[in-house]
Amino acid sequence: METRFEIRNSEFLLMKLDYPERLDEMGALRVLAWKDEQGISQDFFSHNAWLDDEDLLAHHWVILHNKEIVAAARMSFHNDYQSIPHADLFDGSILESYGTGPYASLNRLVVAPGFRGNGFSALLDEARIQYAATHGVRLIIAQPVASRIKPLEDLGFLYLGKIRPLYQMPERQIYFMIKELANNL
Q1: How many CB atoms lie within 10 A of CB 119?
Q2: Number of folded domains in the chain?
Q3: Could you tell me which residue ranges the N-acetyltransferase domain spans (predicted)?
Q4: What residues have CB less than 8 Å from 91, skipping those under 6 apart?
Q5: CB atoms within 10 A of CB 37
């Protein structure tokens, strides 16, 4: 899947990557974009890249500008709630009224500081939601920061509460949201 678009006379490309293409670049972008954010661990973000085991199993989307990754996001699929990244930081019993998976989890959305404000987060969210809907997912889990709650609500996510902070971002509040996919295609 590739989508070309233009913003202020600059061309961009939204694409889903084939595994394990460009993981190191995405990990480096995460550090670049988040290292100076309020509430993060300076020790953790002193590394060159932020990658974890889930990156090897997940699906990844990027937005390229002049062949450089300027935004990225991942989504992983899960048969049970316990295998979702950071599931231990939120009371999964709250999900009982929604039934069981399969689940998709949206995470690691990042936009390079110089490219923020162009709607890249929305484009990456929509691409991941569409992909989940066409691959048998019933429920999508998101664990956003406060500034992402409203955009996700606009896409049909429901706010369910706060989760305990991640050790990488000990002073940054993370929230828990869910979206039911009614019609899998």
Answers
A1: 14
A2: 1
A3: 13-182
A4: none
A5: 12
Lookup: tokens for 36: 């100076």
Is the pTM above the cut of 0.70? yes
For the stretch 133-165, pLDDT in tens is 999 899 999 999 899 999 999 999 999 988 877
84 inside domain = yes
In a domain, 185, yes or no: no
Q: 44 by DSSP, 3-state: which?
A: helix
Buried b / exposed e across 48-72, counting CB within 10 Å, b at 16+? eebbeebbeebbbbbbbbeeebbbb
In CATH, what number is assigned to the domain containing residue 12? Answer: 3.40.630.30
CA angle, residues 64, 85, 182, in degrees to nearest 5: 80
Residue type at 102? P
36 inside domain = yes
